[in-house]
């Protein structure tokens, strides 16, 4: 029987690919790439899946990591608080309503978990540069629990002197006593999910406090001048016209916030928001093509105010904001997870801790790390992770990655790059791929397409395959 050559197998794979798949790689034919380069955002976070580790091997693998010192590189920890005072309509991550007894019991277990892991060689060997206390709503915790948790972090985690400690917050019931407990404990970055300053938009998505209160509290925190203050704004929500969005971004600048994120609203299938729109209780959220125009306008306003761009979605006004945790976690650095529902990464392995708070607490009481899911890294994960981290910054250093991994990346990606150049999604110069504003809006699709393309080449068995020649034949 005649065997197919690698090139033939590749061409066969390409020609058999359904039209819809090709569109996800190369994009649509359009004169308006900002709005129509793709039909939709294909993924929320670009990724390459490895192999699911069998449940019975998860703890053995984790223990093996904890028994070694691990590589010296920047490290982060993520601590999850799975409680919220209210449920926001758009949320796809809600876990539990706040309950005082459960809160106390949970913080006891979280401290035990920090304690358990702190004894390991892995945790003792290298300093931790970024701590992210996220949720859920960490600011919903009581003053005592905030104090207990932060104290446990200092006792158990070898923090680098220039550590970044972020406390994710909402202004609702986040009084001066809680703010002081954070600052006294060494929190040096507050991140608020403001989403919109517009009271009508806020109320329709389930946020409680109005524009006046949000602005007053942000001004107060800025006046303390003791921590970076960061806010997230979201575009595309019901009632959020372009005028409202422009006012949202302009307000961020007027308050002189240290840093800000501009995020796209995702309407999850099982969200309360989708249900409310279907029932006619709320007008529809903006379409993806409308969100694209809002993104471009947001970028223009931030650039006009000379905010410095730290990633595609994130800006800083000054040197106080470093955005360290986000950069480390997106670029594949070690992120050790703590708490029910937390996720993390060590040497390309991805971990998730049990989301069910009762089962989480039971397993902590039994003296084990309550992991429920683990995935091993795919081959070449370092390259893929660097591509994801670089693209999040709005560019790809093709020359550097080619030299580092011993591959001709430009040649390998050339069919995609040529299509994206022609469509106005990227520019190429000095060995760098740079995303245009349209490319920035669609960057998750472009990144996922690159990863899929490289995986497809890999599955044909040869990274050095001359793709340009193959594409010409095809
Ligand atoms: S505060 Fe955050 S986690 Fe809680 S319901 Fe709202 S969006 Fe979801």
Detailed description of the structure:
The protein has 474 residues and is α/β, with parallel strands linked by helices. The protein has 2 domains: 6-48 and 380-473, no CATH class; 55-330, pyruvate-formate lyase- activating enzyme, CATH 3.80.30.20. Helix content is 46%, strand content 18%. It is built from 21 helices and 17 strands. The protein has helices at residues 6-15, 19-26, 33-36, 55-67, 100-118, 121-125, 143-156, 176-185, 199-204, 211-224, 242-255, 272-278, 288-304, 324-330, 357-365, 381-392, 398-405, 409-422, 437-441, 443-459, 467-473; strands at residues 75-81, 83-84, 96-97, 128-135, 159-169, 189-195, 228-235, 259-264, 308-309, 314-316, 334-338, 343-346, 349-353, 371-375, 395-397, 426-429, 432-435. Strands 9-10-8-7-6-5-4-1-11 form a 9-stranded mixed β-sheet, with helices on both faces. α7 (143-156) links the parallel β4 (128-135) and β5 (159-169). α5 (100-118) packs parallel to α7 and α16 runs antiparallel to α20. The longest helix has 19 residues, at 100-118. The radius of gyration is 23 Å and the shape is globular. The model is unreliable at 463-474 (pLDDT under 50). Bound molecules: iron/sulfur cluster. Iron/sulfur cluster (SF4) binds at residues 84, 87-88, 91, 93-94, 135-137, 170, 193. Iron/sulfur cluster is lined by residues 84, 87-88, 91, 93-94, 135-137, 170, 193.
